[in-house]
From TrEMBL:
Protein name (record): Replication factor A C-terminal domain-containing protein
Record-linked SUPFAM superfamilies: Nucleic acid-binding proteins
Family the entry assigns: Belongs to the replication factor A protein 1 family.
Annotated Gene3D superfamilies: Nucleic acid-binding proteins
Record's keyword annotation contains Transcription regulation: no
Domain Replication factor A C-terminal: 112-228
Coiled coil: none
Keyword Zinc-finger: yes
Recorded superkingdom: Eukaryota
Keywords, in A-Z order: DNA-binding, Metal-binding, Zinc, Zinc-finger
Transmembrane segments: none
GO molecular function terms attached to this record: DNA binding; zinc ion binding
Length: 283
């Protein structure tokens, strides 16, 4: 939501970097995906960083639903969302898949690869907490969120799609969560699940919509985490996907990525680890 304030002294007076705004007695209308707010007979009040219970509660919710009982608002950081071009080409370091797998600590990279398969043995969605997106523990007649320490009978379906990605150096399994997957597919996990249930498909049915990922050469912004079990060397989670051909071409030019060759890699069998590394394509 974008709010324009004419009176900047209102913000200066607060001497704060972050602002929590409370609107009282306003008319809100949601139409065609756009929320409009209008004044109601000149009674609307706009309060910035007001010392109100509702503001304090909102702060606590933002910082982890009471895990840190701070009542000040200075703990809330900005979520900076860079443009795809900044994020994928200039700001995040690029690495080949084999380099990502060799990294020892948790780190974030951009890589370019072709999706060759989706792991159908692994569930493509999970039951998430409505408040924090954490996976829920199923109890006999309800669910439990360990992060929020809350019991509930309601869950939200969120994506956790495991895709097999190949580049010129190696292959790896990337986990796509709700934000990155739904932006690419144009559908949420809840949308797909609802349509599957409406068609009478069972839990084991694999939704065709996910195949839109297969065969695509994409940029992935990802984070390599240490694995929690001994069967897996690491877990690679994707926070953002870029399918913009101009941005892909721009990164390919800068990092000497052979896009033609990459687009032809549609099976893992064509890749032998290390085979193409001597071509000088390591950056
Ligand atoms: Zn939760």
């Amino acid at each position: 939501m974008k709010i324009e304030l004419d009176d900047l002294s209102l913000l200066d007076a607060n001497k704060a970097n972050e602002f929590i705004i409370v609107l009282q007695f306003a008319k809100m209308k949601f139409y065609n995906g756009v929320m409009t707010i209008t004044n109601t007979n000149y009674t609307t009040r706009l309060m910035v960083n007001a010392n109100l219970e509702v503001v304090k509660k909102f702060c606590q919710k933002l910082i982890g639903l009471g895990t840190k009982h701070s009542t000040t608002i200075d703990v809330i950081g900005w979520v900076v969302r860079y443009s795809p071009s900044e994020d994928f080409v200039s700001l995040t370091p690029y690495a080949l898949i084999y380099q990502i797998k060799q990294t020892v600590e948790k780190s974030t990279y951009v890589t370019c690869g072709t999706v060759i398969d989706i792991d159908r043995d692994h569930a493509w969605w999970y039951k998430a907490c409505r408040q924090c997106t954490q996976g829920l523990e199923a109890l006999t007649d309800q669910f439990y969120c360990a992060k929020c320490d809350v019991y509930s009978t309601i869950f939200v379906a969120r994506f956790c799609i495991q895709v097999r990605v190949v580049d010129e150096s190696d292959t790896a399994t990337f986990v796509l969560f709700e934000n990155s997957a739904s932006k690419f597919l144009g559908l949420t996990a809840a949308d797909i699940r609802t349509s599957m249930l409406a068609k009478g498909y069972g839990r084991d049915h694999f939704p065709e919509q996910l195949n839109a990922l297969v065969g695509k050469t994409l940029l992935f912004k990802l984070t390599r985490h240490d694995s929690l079990n001994k069967f897996q060397a690491c877990v690679i989670t994707v926070s953002r996907i870029c399918s913009d051909p101009e941005i892909i071409a721009s990164l390919a030019l800068e990092k000497n990525i052979q896009l033609d060759a990459l687009q032809k890699l549609t099976t893992a069998t064509g890749v032998r680890s290390g085979e193409l590394i001597s071509n000088g394509s390591i950056v």
